[in-house]
């Protein structure tokens, strides 16, 4: 029983874990949350279902964390995905594993994850106060407490876990970076990750809100001779600015040093069929519709919201009969069905990103404790650190692991 006074700034995934595990060691823990409730961002993760972790080993988490994954070795060794699963189930929340080893509450309700964290924190003796921390107090190279609207509060240790800059309506407005900078820490430039993409071509706007549920996506890097950097299968949605959807969010995390026209997207509209099988189907459809216009052929293959745009891209006259299609025209149809191209203009704003890439430099944080190397008694956890991962529960696992390590340290 240490009896130290610990302040945790932020009641999100990392902050609540830090508070719970610090309190379990006997610390007197106060969590400061500027929102009216805890875990605001957790409510919207996984489309409201909350993908709490990925049912995998520590090495897989690191492999799926492109930004400073190796920094997480100690945190994951202390609190791995299996520990996350055990934590929630032991505290009354049954979990299930779905496609891609993604782990969700059996109830499919993110609110149940938040309720579990709240209940467990209260049982551990954590005090949660809904006040905004406006500053941290420093003296002689050590942290001394926090400052709120009600005045100064003194603590032995302070854990900064107030998130990044993504989804600012949930309270992630970059406060942690300001506190870290005051303490002398370097902030690696921020950029969005797991974010929709803007495209150069106006055709996306022509198909706005059209959802492709079973498409395949390939991303090519033109600066590396069209090297394939990402491929996946799933949902993709056309927006007025470009494309969104689960696949697109995942793809964005692989795009480093974004520049207009650097990345090209190829959408396979018929991923279940090889080129040979698709060509055979095309010929069958053409024979069956030989007296009908080409538009009828395309309509038999694609959603109605895409037909006009697709036909325009092929250059085919919509009233040309199927029987008049030449071999080069059929080849053009086949190519576009298997590789419909879009050029990436850039990321959508960071406010629309799921996570923030960049943050407090890991060079200035002890990976074995999450303690600041510059200021005594100061710790970091979660998205405020320059660590970000792909979709699939990996980012929340990073938050939980760093939170636990910071709290116990």
Describe the fold and architecture.
The chain is an alpha+beta fold and 409 residues long. It has 2 domains: 244 residues, FAD/NAD(P)-binding domain, CATH 3.50.50.60; 152 residues, Orthogonal Bundle (Helicase, Ruva Protein, domain 3), CATH 1.10.8.100. It contains 13 helices and 19 strands. The strands form 5 sheets. It has a 6-stranded antiparallel barrel with strand order 12-15-14-13-16-17. Helix 9 packs across helix 12. The two termini are 13 Å apart. The model has no long low-confidence stretch (mean pLDDT 93).
What's the SSE blueprint?
Layout: E1 5-9, H1 13-24, E2 28-32, E3 53-54, H2 58-63, H3 73-78, H4 81-90, E4 95-97, E5 102-105, H5 110-124, E6 127-129, E7 133-139, E8 142-148, E9 151-154, E10 157-160, H6 175-182, E11 187-193, E12 197-199, H7 203-206, E13 211-221, E14 227-238, E15 242-244, H8 246-252, E16 263-268, H9 275-288, H10 294-299, H11 304-314, H12 327-338, E17 340-347, E18 355-360, E19 378-380, H13 394-408
Parallel strand pairs: 1-2, 1-10, 2-6, 10-19
Antiparallel strand pairs: 3-5, 4-5, 7-8, 8-9, 11-18, 12-15, 12-17, 13-14, 13-16, 14-15, 16-17
Shape descriptor reads elongated
Unreliable stretches: none
Q: Determine the N-to-C terminus distance.
A: 13 Å
CATH superfamily annotation of the largest domain: FAD/NAD(P)-binding domain
Number of strands: 19
Overall tally of domains: 2
User: Which class of secondary structure composition applies to the elements?
Assistant: alpha+beta
